[in-house]
Every structure is written in structure tokens, then in C-alpha cells.
Design a protein that fits this description.
heterodimer, A: mainly alpha, two-stranded antiparallel ribbon, 1% strand, B: 156 residues, mainly alpha
Chain lengths: 499, 156
Amino acid sequence: MIEGILIGLSTALSLTNILMVMVGCFAGTIIGMLPGLGPMTAIALMIPITYGFDPSTGLILMAGVYYGAVFGGSTSSILLNAPGIPGTVATAFDGYPMAQQGKAGKALAIAAYSSFAGGTISAIFLLVAAPSLSKVSLAFRSPDYFALMILGLTAISAFSSKGQFLKAMMMVVLGLMLATVGQDSLSDITRFTFNNMNLTDGISFVLIVMATFAMSEALTIIFRGKDPNRAAKQISLTELGSIKVNKEETIKMAKTIPRSSILGFLIGVLPGAGATIASFLAYGMERNYVNEEEKQKFGKGSVHGLSAPETANNAACSGSFVPLLTLGIPGSGTTAVMLGALLGFGIQPGPRLYQTNPEIFWSVIMSMYIGMVVLLILNLPLIPYIARILAVPRNYLIPLILFFSVTGIYLMSFNNFDIFLMIGIAVVATFLRLYDFPMPPLILAFVLGGLMEETLRRSLLISDGSPNFLWDRPITLIILLITITIVGWQIFSTFRKKS
Amino acid sequence: MRISPTKFISLLFFVLSVFYLYTAYNIQVFAFDENAPFNARTFPIYLGWAGIILSSLKIILPEKVTTEVNHKHLDYKSIIYLIIISLIYAAVILKIGYFISTSLFLFASYYFLGERRWGLMFILSFPFVAAFMYLLHGLLNIYLRDPFLKYIGVMG
């Protein structure tokens, strides 16, 4: 492991890669700060830029963007009560009241320190857990992978559906349907192309991400522009107050950070869970841990209440890399985008990545830690200046997002069919989002579609077409039972609410 | 009878799934693969049925959580303008090249979204695209075909 860490460090600490982490963190912070734009959009916008780099550098840039976007999301939560991403909604519960009390700088500093600590602790966990899990996951066979992918898709549907599980499952099926367009990987038979040559290679992953996130996000902002509920509540962005944290506040943070980090990491490892659930659970857990006097402060600017979700969401970000790096199965929408980017580089993450491309495996882990340090030393002093980004009028912001989306696709294919297709998908996605049809399950399903078909093919061929492969192996059966439990729980909660 | 938008979308998804399933059954596979446990049709057929079952459930089951959208608060005009501009942009990008089409797209988008500071609009379109092209072409070595810039001798 020490050797691996050294390989990772030497790759991550090269001048280009350090520069990429810095650029990534900075760009991610700015994009993540803009309400409505989260890490998925930020990473998607970065994909075309990574074409010119080697895989390690590209991934390091994207990891930086990821962390930066999560931090940026916290900034808009604290300053505007408008979370950039769902994972920072809980941050606003105590961050925004603190900002209203004239302690915006302090709130941002607490968020930054907590994020740093949470990220650092979970990066250490990742360092230890990922290689061990890689070895365990070598025991996985096709039926286990198939069951695991079903579990991941069910879990993300359950967690991202806001109580509308069926809608999320429909999005999963839509994502899988889109993944089947183009040539069948084994027989090369074209499917669902309707004799259009442009569809023979299938629909590009970047196109789907750009359409359903970046472009549709921009269209949604314009579409709902007149909605008074979505209008940002502006507080002073020029006078944020001191960013110094006193001794009492430091002690409070020191108590909160370890438990929230562990919780965040464990939640992040679970397929489909991630930063949002981690932050809410950490907030709830922290409220139960503190004394009665502190409990009363929750929702009114509590240090515990701000530190817990911030620590947990960053810890969950690192945790979500565990299934991606060890099993090749992303646990969240954001890591699904990263998986797509990895596949674009010709790298298949999974248990063998650790052996075949150790420099990528380790440099991503090490760059996460470097990203944390960069976020702290670069972003914290720049907070008063970065915060002004929030004042960028949407009249400029939206066209620029559209410009980056179209350029990203144009750079990939140099034809306009893909641009037309992207506009079409973005318009459909905008209407679907309007009626709460979630997009992360669609993305995850689209990314996993090819792999899922392949593992199902192998499993069915081994079992001679019988569905017995689903319960023949104990691992497969256990994973399947967990999936059934999640579906059962969703049905139960539906009936409970009804009654 | 009034059908809720969610159920209407589910109905559309049902129709899509039926069409998808029909197309899946019509995928041509090799003769020797016809009766294999798994061929190019198998996975799409499962998906088609899954889509039909899920959308049917959504249509049949009563809605306990309804998504209310106030159409008075939706800015249809701006979004239609933006989509039309984007479509025109996609249509002309190959003919007139990246630089001119992108700059005009940005300029027109700013204008239709209500911006009237002409100087700023200009800077954030033509020079901005030029700088971006330099970043791609000059620094990252990513080639962008542009007949216009080639004609005036800026690009090779």
C-alpha cells in the first residue's frame, strides 16, 4: 500500500496535476455556487476540456471540480439560503441563520474547516478500504454484478425520488432504453437506430449528461424565472464579517467532526445513497447527541448544526468513490458521470484497476486529499471575492452554460446531429424535471446499461437461460434480498402515507 | 375527465414502451442466435415490458403526492426564444463555422434574455469566443474546424 501511496503522490504532485486540482477546485466552487448547478453539471462541463489530457490528469481535474462544487454549494446555501446541490440543503438550516446574524464569514469558515476535516478523515478510510475491497470484489461473478447493479438502480431511485419511487424507476428504464441505442456489443447488430448512421455508435454519454443536467438546468432556471418561490433572497455579499473561529466553536467542531465523518463515509459507500442522505442523517444524529441547551440552538445558527452536515457530505463524496473504484459500479449520479468519463479514457474501473492501472487508482485517491488542502488554503481567503459570483445576472449565466454544453458536444463529434439531439433531450428533460421526474437514476441507468446487459448475458448463458442464477450464489441472493427489502419498504411507506 | 400532467407523462411513457417493445421484437438477429438463451433482442424486450408495467402502475394507482406547477410563473416566451436560437445555432455551425455562429448565438441569447448593455454583450460574445478558441486550439491542441477563420487566414 505504501508503494501505491507513493505512486499516487508522485503522479498527483506533478506540477500539471497540482495545477489541475487548483483549477478544478476553483472552477468547481464557482459552478457549484450557482444555485441549481451541482457537481454533476460542473463535471459534465469539464469533460470536453479533459479530452486533451492523460487519464490521471483528467480524473484529477474532475475530482477537484467535484469537491469544489460541493464546497461551492455550501456557499450559496449559507449566503442565499439557495443550496447549489441537494447535499447542502441541511447546511442552510443553520448556515443561513448564522449569515443573517452578520456571521456569514464565520459560517463559511466553519463549513470549510468541517468539509476539510470530513474529507480528510474519509480519504484515509478510502485509502484503507479501497484496496481491501478490491481484493474482496475479485470474488464477484457476473450474477453478483448484475444483482449489484439492480440494487444500485433501485437504491438511487428510492433515495432520489422524494417519495415518488415509480417515477424514479421509470427514469431508470428510460436510461436503460437509451443505452440500448446503437450496435449490440457482442453481435454488432444495430438496434433502435432507425437507419440513422449517426446513431450507430449509440448515444454519447456526455451528450446525455449535458442535455439532462447542464442544458436542462439552464432551461429550467429560465423557465421558472418568474416563480417567486425560487427568487434568491440576497444578503450582503460585500460584508461577510470575520472568518475567524474562536476556541469554543473549535471545540464544538472537534466533537462533531469525527462522528459525522464516519457516518458520512459509510452512507457514501452505500449504492444510491450519497451526500444528501448523509448530510440529513448527520444533522439529525448531531441533534440527538448534543445537550438540551445546544439542541435549542439548532435551526438558529448552531455550530454543531452547521458542522455536521458539512462534514458528512464531504465524507460521503469520498465514500461514494469506494464502489466506483473497487467494483466499477458508481453509487451516485456524480460518480456515474465520472465512470462515463473513465470509460471515455478507455479505462474500466473495477477490482482490476487496482492492479492494471495503479497510478490512476492511487492518484485519484491522493488528489482527493490534495483537493481538500487546496480548497482550504485557496478558497477560504478568497471567499469574499468568490461570493460575488453569486451576483452574476442570469442573462449572462444561462447563455454561457448553453455555450459550454453545445461546445462540449461539438468538440466530440463535429456534427450537428448530436447538437439537435441534445437540444431535444434537454427540452424533454426540462419538462420531466418540472413534474419531479428525477434525472440521477436516468444517468446511472444509462451508464450501467451496457455493463448490465453484458452481465445478464453471461449469467443467462451460464445458467442456460434459467433465472436460477439469481439465487444460486449466496452473494447474489443476499444482494437481491436487499433490493427486495428496498422495494418492499417503498411499497410499505406508500401505503402507510395513504392510511 | 381531467388527467394530471404526471399521469399524462406516464401515458406517453407507456406509448413509448409499447413502441420500444414492438421495435425490440423486430430486431433482426442471426439465424443461429434465434433460439439462444440471450441475443440482441433479450435485454430490450425485458426493458420494454418493465416500461409498460411501471407506466401502467403509475397511471392506474392513485397519486398520493401531486406535483403542482403554476403555469403563470413559467416563462414560456424566453424558453421558446432560447430553444429556437439554439436550433438555428446547431443548423448553421457547420456552414459558417464555430467562431461566428457561437458569437452570434451568445449575443442573441443575451439580447433575448433582456440584456441591453451592448458593450458587455459584445465582449462576452466575440472576444470571449476568440479567447476560448485560443485556449482550445492554441493551448490544448483541440482542433476546431472553422471555414470563416480559415478564409480570413487566422486559422490553418
